[in-house]
Amino acid sequence: MIEAGNISVTIGGKRIVSHVDFAARPGEVSAVVGPNGSGKTTLLKALTGELSYTGTVTINGRDLSAMKPVEAATLRAVLPQATALSFPFTVREIVRLGLIGGRSGVLPGEDARLPERALARVDLDGFAGRFYQELSGGEQQRVQLARVLCQVWAPVLEGRPRYLFLDEPVSSLDVKHQLIIMNIARDFARRGGGVVAILHDLNLTAMYADRIFVLSGGQLAAAGSPTEVLNDELIEKVFDCRLKVGALPEGSMPFVLPQSAA
Amino acid sequence: MAEQSIADVGRVMTADGDRSARARFVIALLCLAMTLSVFLSLTSGASDASALRVIRDWLTGAVPVDTALAARDQLIVYDIRMPRVLLGVLIGAALAVSGAVMQGLFRNPLADPGLIGVSAGSSLGAVAIIVLGTTWLAPFTLAFGTLALPLAAFFGGLAVTLLLYAIATRQGRTSVATMLLAGIAVSALAMALTGVLIFMADDRQLRDLTFWQLGSLAGATWPKIGTVGPVVILALAAMPFLSRGLNALALGEATAGHLGIPVQRLKYIAIVGVSAAVGASVAVSGGIGFIGIVVPHVLRLAIGPDNRYLLPASALLGASLLLIADAVARTVVAPAELPIGIVTAIAGAPFFLWILLRKRGVIDL
User: Fold this and answer.
1) Are A149 and A77 in contact, with CB atoms under 8 Å apart?
2) Which of these, B12, B41, B2, lies nearest to B330 by C-alpha position?
3) B9 pLDDT band (50/70/90 cuts)?
4) Which pLDDT score, from 0 to 100, does residue B97 have?
5) What contacts A44, CB < 8 A, 6 or more positions away?
6) Could you tell me how many CB contacts below 8 A there are between chain A and chain B?
7) Using the 8-state DSSP alphabet, how is residue A131 labeled?
8) What domains sit in chain A, N to C, each tagged with a CATH number?
9) Would you say residue B334 lies in a domain?
10) Does residue B364 belong to any structural domain of this protein?
């Protein structure tokens, strides 16, 4: 369980996140949604210890601020929005970096093959020998996800659940790979791990999230299951946009929902 | 431009993206190259002393026929060439590894102790001791004796590195642009202060000072190696422990932390290690440029940026290149000798420009 109580983050004199309570249970996908600038990424950075915060964050009951980097690395992996490199690493070398500090949880001899397995998971079979910098944005994002998966390959290690923090994991992906990546997240949760994902697509969120946390102006506007949270009033209040949940477009206007994926 | 440089690197790629076997092979070749360079350095020079004969006599225990000539040869090989070769190995390795570590730390292939002012800071420290060692800084020289000069060079380099890091880092993020620009400013300031000291210097001190500005391995003695060797060896010995952390740092400081790397500690060790290695090198050999930037760059093209292989390979290639440059410096205008800084700059500056031209528009300065 990731538990955060009364989290506030102030950057440059401006309060970005204000008194947010948050809890992500193992076995569940917890989504954080909200408009641009609502403090989603800042909250995630507080939960992962990247930014200093007031309040408390615990992972499986242990205080995050008292953990060494390597202890936290065995309990959770973090996918940032975008990662730029200054040196010509190959894809395999990047994915292998996931094995540096954490513990994948596979047998010691199997670690060497893990980068290839992780790349196959994110549909990048055969990309190991390519240069990271020559890949497209969406491919780079999946390479980073493969690296993150290597770090916590086993969702449960020695009886303790582990966690994935994903900051907009599908933001630059085509629809097929959006579904692949969200299925990886759901699978990780089904096998006992926990997932915290920042998402923008409300349809994908409704489809995959077990719990949704809605941020607005740095504060928690709502939290609950998709059916509890996603309603016309909340969307209008938070996103400042008059939308109807469940309404179909008129006439012959085509629309495509991820839920229709076979 | 990006496609071009990637295509260049692509020629030395392996299909599965695992370059560790290639890296180990290159390191083995570099061991051979360094052995050859050491041999070349020991056997070449202004005198006709035969290192081979000295080594053979030493190995077989044979009594030389011409004892006077043998004694002279022994003196040249043991007391002049050997310390010089050892110093060249230590300094070449120190400069190349320091360059590689700084480039990893700043995540920029153009970072170099000479470029961003660490060497200028070390020079200022060393020059201050030469000029003021008997007057204003007398207590310091009295307290540390022969160590005063290397220590001053070390603290000069350390001060510049820490200053740059403090200026360029905001909320745990280091701005490379700020770092490079601040490095230019700090370098200029250190050089101006060095200029003031030169203005104050007397004739004897001026001669000593000229040596700093050009860089040379001449004047290598066993006592000097005794002073500098331990510092450089300690700093070099610490570097392999940084390699995994520096690899993770390529993904950014935050991600390195998420991967379990104690980033702040890594930065401190890297900064102190680089300052120590560069400071000690500058203290005995003056400013020798371009080894720190050329060697890691060439090796990245050959074996990739994995610091587990890049750091030892840099040490080997840096040592080999400096020995070869020194052999050139000693023989090309024999019996006089060129300052080695001139040799490395003549070979290194055009190469550096070539890197800049190839990377133009790709690297975000």
Assistant:
1) yes
2) B41
3) very low
4) 94
5) A32, A78, A165, A167, A196, A198
6) 112
7) B
8) 2-246+255-260 (3.40.50.300)
9) yes
10) no
pLDDT in tens, A118-162: 999 999 999 999 999 889 999 999 999 999 999 999 999 999 999
Q: Enumerate the residues of chain A whose CB falls inside 8 A of the CB of residue B15.
A: 129
Q: How far apart are CA B34 and CA B19, in angstroms?
A: 22
User: Which residues of chain A make contact with B265, given a CB cutoff of 8 A?
Assistant: none
* Facing residue for A92 by CB, picked from B16, B251, B363: B16
Q: Please report, for residues A186, B127, B128, B326, the alpha-carbon distance to residue B138 in angstroms, rounded to integers and kept in the order given.
A: 71, 14, 11, 34
> Interface pTM (ipTM) of the complex?
0.92
Residue corresponding to tokens 């000291």: B197
CA distance B187 to B190: 5
The SS3 call for residue B190 is helix
The CATH number of whichever domain residue B148 belongs to comes to 1.10.3470.10
Closest CA to B5 of B352, B306, B310, B301: B301
CA–CA separation, B115 vs A87, rounded Å? 19
Residue whose pair of structure tokens reads 């193992």 in the numeric block: A26
- DSSP-based three-state secondary structure for B17: coil
Asked if residue B133 belongs to a domain, the reply is yes
Dihedral sign computed on CA atoms, order A124, A130, A136, A137: positive
B contact test, residue of A97, A103, A135, A167 with most B CBs within 10 A: A97
Which stretches of chain A drop beneath a pLDDT of 50? none
Tell me the HSE value of A218 on the side-chain side, using a 13 A CA sphere: 14
**Residue B169, strand partner residues:** B174
CA atoms within 13 A on the CB side of A87: 33
Q: Which helix (H) or strand (E) holds A11?
A: strand A2-11
List Cβ neighbours of B147 (8 Å cut-off, separation of 6 or more): B227
pLDDT at A71: 92
